[in-house]
């Protein structure tokens, strides 16, 4: 299984110029229902690639997660190359670089369509889960009454709950 993972993930090296020293983190799990899960994280200097997949066949899960990572890499490379081409065009035109224009580009890519303001109430994680379910949301932000820190509870794909504790 390890050799198969190394072989599949190793094929992603063709997208890099070899200057990066990349460490791949792979986590394999098998659940009681017979499904396996693979999580792959590739931390890089200006990019974090992460994909996970559940499947009854671990080899199929490895193939699917490799495909996801490959799509992420291609998307990132395309975005970087597009920005480089745009910068080259601007340099050829000898036009001054406008900070407002680059800010507008970023806003188009990551447009915030709604902003909410609210007070965080002190509560425990159980009460936060109840509030989240009452609101019909997939996550809920609250102040942990015990630690007085901001926490987030969220609903996982398996139907269980997760807790994120901010430092």
Automatic annotation (TrEMBL):
PANTHER family: 30S RIBOSOMAL PROTEIN (PTHR33231:SF1). NCBIfam families: yfiA (TIGR00741). Keywords: Cytoplasm, Translation regulation. Residues 107-163 form the Sigma 54 modulation/S30EA ribosomal protein C-terminal domain. GO terms for molecular function: ribosomal small subunit binding. It comes from Geobacillus kaustophilus GBlys. GO terms for cellular component: cytosolic small ribosomal subunit. Belongs to the HPF/YfiA ribosome-associated protein family. Long HPF subfamily. Interacts with 100S ribosomes. Required for dimerization of active 70S ribosomes into 100S ribosomes in stationary phase; 100S ribosomes are translationally inactive and sometimes present during exponential growth. This is Ribosome hibernation promoting factor. It is found in: Cytoplasm. GO terms for biological process: negative regulation of translational elongation. It holds the Pfam family Ribosom_S30AE_C. It comes from the Bacteria. Its main location: cytoplasm.
């Amino acid at each position: 299984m390890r050799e198969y993972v190394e072989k599949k993930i190793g094929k992603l090296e063709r997208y890099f110029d070899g200057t990066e020293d990349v460490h791949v983190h792979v986590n394999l799990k098998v659940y009681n229902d017979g499904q396996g899960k693979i999580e792959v994280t590739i931390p890089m200097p200006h990019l974090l690639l992460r994909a996970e997949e559940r499947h009854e066949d671990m080899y199929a899960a490895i193939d699917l997660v490799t495909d996801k990572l490959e799509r992420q890499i291609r998307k990132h490379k395309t975005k970087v190359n597009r920005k480089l081409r745009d910068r080259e065009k601007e340099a050829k035109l000898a036009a001054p670089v406008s900070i407002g224009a680059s800010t507008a580009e970023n806003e188009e890519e990551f447009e915030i369509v709604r902003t909410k303001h609210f007070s965080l109430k002190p509560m425990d994680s159980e009460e936060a889960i109840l509030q989240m379910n009452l609101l019909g949301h997939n996550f809920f932000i609250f102040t942990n009454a015990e630690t007085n820190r901001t926490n987030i509870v969220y609903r996982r794909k398996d139907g269980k709950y997760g807790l994120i504790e901010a430092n």
